Amino acid sequence: MNFNISGLDNTAVGYLSLLLNTSGYGNTANGSQSMNANSTGSENTATGYQALFANSDGGANTAIGYQALYSNVETQQNTAVGYQALYSNDGSYNTAVGFQALYSNSIGGSNNTAVGYQSLFSNTTGDNNTALGDYSNVSSGTLFNATAIGYSALANGNNKVVVGQNFNGMIIGGYANWSNLSDGRFKENIRENVPGLDFISRLRPVTYWINTDKLQRHITAEMPDSMAQRYLPDAEQQAKDREYSHTGFVAQEVEAVACQIGYAFDGVNAPKNSTDNYSIAYSQFVPSLVKAVQEQQTLIEAQRAEIEQLKKQAAENATLRTQLDKITAALQGAGIGVGN
Question: N or C end of the chain, less CB within 10 A?
């Protein structure tokens, strides 16, 4: 136990723990060199070898594990549980649970949550990111509001949620349909300007397979090679990719069609950064499909009315023809010649 501490309500257990504390209070350091540099930081808890080692002024931090929150100096309200979790941290309000979770988080990286082995390992200055699952991560250290859920899930855009690996054969679903906000109380400037047949008839439905190796290399282009390699498919997976057929559209083609007809279509998500990728929200095609059916039904009803009119005219013509045949027969019977 180290008795060379000042301040109130501090507990230090371990070689050089809380060695430099001056006015910090309410701290608990348990482990060799835990909170070694703390001076005025208060209400911190450090358990493990060199946990919160560099902390001097930061408060209300919790570090449990070997070198957890090791580099934290003055930021606050972080929670790190695991070997070197939040090791490089210089941000606040972060939560990291797992071996080297949020390991690279540095200046300003705040409000991030990482759960899993090396989850959010690449995040540096990004904010409000969430990763759940071993190796769940972001493709760039500066993203914000990015979420990766599942083993090796990799979010590659701001305000983007990625569920599962970018491998063919992944199934995402449950026992109820996904529900989107659709409440008339909060919708304004409602207009009936959705294109139907003009949009739908120009689309090109196709089948295809995804080159996941090429895709992953694009997504991980800004990551160190040693890290990027973890997200690349092996030869066996690449072979499976070529056998897995998808049905859909090419996003760039849909984007071009919408542009041609002046339709501000929200079903195509264009890349927001150099490692982002195009994506399509297929549910957004439903309004145009409904409009197309309505337009087709209008055409069908008009054609049906035209056909009925033609049938009526044909019936009238048949009656006139019968009457004409009777008159012709009567005239011929009376010896009166009738020309054709």
Answer: C
